[in-house]
Specification:
This protein is mostly helical and 74 residues long. The chain has one domain (11-67). It has two helices and no strands. It has helices at residues 11-39, 42-72. The radius of gyration is 16 Å and the shape is elongated.
């Protein structure tokens, strides 16, 4: 974390956090989808797929944040 102000993380740090959260959502969505398939619960399958999509988008946003941070650092 930024040593100058621990309450204000850098864009790169936020990007890394978003990548981690996105990966967790992706895994949780796959598990949720699998449980939905096993129980033949289409609603749960759909929610799992949606959670995976959310995780993928959050991960991509995190990557973009890190790239922007890298490009703008002196």
């Amino acid at each position: 974390m930024n040593t100058n102000d621990q309450n204000n993380p850098t864009l790169g740090e936020r990007g890394a956090a978003n990548q981690g959260k996105g990966a967790l959502d992706n895994v949780a969505g796959k598990i949720q989808e699998g449980i939905g398939k096993a129980t033949k619960d289409r609603s749960m399958q759909a929610k799992g797929k949606a959670r995976q999509a959310k995780g993928t988008l959050q991960g991509k946003a995190g990557q973009a944040q890190q790239k922007i941070d890298d490009a703008t650092r002196p």
